[in-house]
Design a protein that fits this description.
- The N and C termini lie close together (10 Å).
- The chain has 2 helices and no strands.
- Helix 1 runs antiparallel to helix 2 (25-45).
- With 55 residues, it is an all-alpha fold.
- The protein has a domain at 3-7 and 17-43.
- The chain is elongated.
- The chain binds zinc ion.
């Protein structure tokens, strides 16, 4: 874990809380897309290598 993914994790956690308080389906979908984008960003910070040593 580095600074950048910690910040992304914070945002993801925040948005997930926002989503759980939302009732508007369209807003939920938009925020979900944002969360997905952030998760993708996080994954690209630490690319997982299949078969590689776990770190
Ligand atoms: Zn990191």
């Amino acid at each position: 874990m580095c600074d950048r993914c910690e910040r992304l994790d914070e945002k993801i956690g925040h948005y997930k809380k926002v989503i759980s308080a939302m009732t508007d389906q369209l807003t939920i979908e938009r925020i979900s897309a944002l969360v997905l984008e952030m998760q993708t960003q996080k994954a690209s910070l630490h690319p997982e290598r299949p078969g590689g040593p776990a770190r």
